[in-house]
């Protein structure tokens, strides 16, 4: 470890040990990258994402309160509905019209159950593909959720719901006339082979299962947006960072802490996921056009080249902006970029500058390439030192 790195760690420790955190100083330090040693990044992200207040004295009580609140969400949204499902219609005499699976009422418990299942299956499909370049999300967590895995709780877990629904959708589908077809797969399910749904032994949980639970609870608490594909790519780096915290006491609560930090982050970027807002000033279309207007201001030659080739920002910047670049770089690089994003006052204005910097740094290749070559370049951004990108984005910001 270099003396410079040791000095940076000491600078962070000095700021974080104060009774009241100097937020501006913390932002300034974090913008240049947060050391992972001693759980510094985990702690800084929790402060920068407004999960922890600036007053250190209140951290213990607030964390305890929030973690208990998350446990209550688990009880209300997974355990209690799972018990109700297990008990619904245990004998033919018990089944009333209100409890019948074919009851069309929107207030029916079964109707809610089926709608939740649709969301759950999409989440399940997406979280299994998280960060395929590393094995972390497939491995067992050291701290499985005891509330969920308690053998005394006889209820339908999310794992069981997915397994049962997948098995049924592979063999049974109902066509428009209501005739059961035993050979056709469900038209919306398109499930993978059964062996892709193999899970860890009882008493163990993979990290992706924890992420699945976080997203399911978020969807239940936010019915206006629920779950949109891509949210998994936002929660993944957050959870990875908290679940690899060297402080075992904090690592144990990575699930709850991730949930609240993800919720706070989504409060800032949720408009990107709401299609009806795409063309509004807070929508994703406006932000994509802002990337190009900034490029026009900073590098008009490159801007005109992309315009000439009819390469619209929707072709590449939609993913860059919506997923906070989580699909463009390897996970350690994504985390480094997020250090700067979370630290900046106007973090998502800075994201626009990062995207603009990415274009400028490959300008020579873009100026020489044709439409096909440039589209391939933009949709599969070349391996780059992300510190160069962030430095360029800072230069663009300072030159305004």
Automatic annotation (TrEMBL):
Q: Does the keyword Lipid metabolism apply?
A: no
What's one Pfam family here?
RabGAP-TBC
Show which residues constitute the signal peptide: none
Q: Where in the cell is it found?
A: Cytoplasm; Membrane
Organism equals: Chinchilla lanigera
The principal localisation class reads cytoplasm
Name of the featured protein: TBC1 domain family member 13
InterPro entries (alphabetical): Rab-GAP-TBC_dom, Rab-GAP_TBC_sf
UniProt entry keywords in alphabetical sequence: Cytoplasm, GTPase activation, Membrane
Annotated ranges, domain Rab-GAP TBC: 35-345
| Record-level GO BP terms | intracellular protein transport
- Quaternary structure per UniProt? Interacts with RAB1A and RAB10; in a GTP-dependent manner.
Q: What superkingdom heads the lineage?
A: Eukaryota
A GO molecular function assigned to this protein is: GTPase activator activity
- Spell out the SMART domains in the cross-references: TBC (SM00164)
Query: Per its database record, what is this protein's job?
Result: Acts as a GTPase-activating protein for RAB35. Together with RAB35 may be involved in regulation of insulin-induced glucose transporter SLC2A4/GLUT4 translocation to the plasma membrane in adipocytes.
GO cellular component terms attached to this protein's record: cytosol; membrane
Indicate whether Cytoplasm appears among the record's keywords. yes
């Amino acid at each position: 470890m270099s003396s410079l790195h040791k000095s940076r760690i000491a600078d962070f420790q000095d700021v974080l040990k104060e009774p009241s955190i100097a937020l501006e100083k913390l932002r300034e330090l974090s913008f240049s990258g947060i050391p992972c040693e001693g759980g510094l990044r985990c702690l800084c992200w929790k402060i920068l994402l407004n999960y922890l207040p600036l007053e250190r004295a209140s951290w213990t009580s607030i964390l305890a309160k929030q973690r208990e609140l998350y446990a209550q969400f688990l009880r209300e949204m997974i355990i209690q509905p799972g018990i109700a499902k297990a008990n619904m219609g245990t004998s033919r005499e018990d089944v009333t019209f209100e409890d019948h699976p074919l009851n069309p009422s929107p207030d029916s418990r079964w109707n809610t159950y089926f709608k939740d299942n649709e969301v759950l299956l999409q989440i399940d499909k997406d979280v299994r593909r998280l960060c395929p370049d590393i094995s972390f999300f497939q491995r067992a967590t050291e701290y499985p959720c005891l509330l969920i895995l308690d053998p005394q709780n006889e209820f339908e877990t999310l794992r069981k719901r997915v397994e049962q629904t997948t098995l049924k959708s592979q063999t049974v589908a109902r066509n428009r006339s209501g005739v059961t077809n035993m050979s056709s797969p469900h038209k919306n399910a398109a499930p993978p082979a059964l062996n892709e749904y193999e899970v860890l032994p009882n008493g163990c949980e993979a990290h992706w299962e924890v992420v699945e639970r976080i997203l399911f609870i978020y969807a239940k608490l936010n019915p206006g947006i629920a779950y949109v594909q891509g949210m998994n790519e936002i929660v993944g780096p957050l959870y990875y960072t908290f679940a690899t915290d060297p402080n075992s006491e904090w690592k144990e609560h990575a699930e709850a802490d991730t949930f609240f930090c993800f919720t706070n982050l989504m409060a800032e970027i949720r408009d990107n996921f709401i299609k009806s807002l795409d063309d509004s000033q807070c929508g994703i279309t406006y932000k994509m056009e802002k990337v190009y207007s900034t490029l026009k201001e900073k590098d008009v030659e490159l801007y005109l080249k992309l315009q000439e080739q009819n390469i619209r920002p929707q072709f590449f910047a939609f993913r860059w902006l919506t997923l906070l670049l989580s699909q463009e770089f390897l996970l350690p690089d994504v985390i480094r970029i997020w250090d700067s994003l979370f630290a900046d006052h106007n973090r998502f204005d800075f994201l626009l500058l990062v995207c603009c910097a990415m274009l400028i740094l490959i300008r020579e290749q873009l100026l020489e390439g044709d439409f096909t070559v440039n589209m391939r370049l933009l949709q599969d951004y070349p391996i780059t030192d992300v510190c160069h990108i962030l430095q360029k984005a800072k230069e663009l910001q300072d030159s305004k």
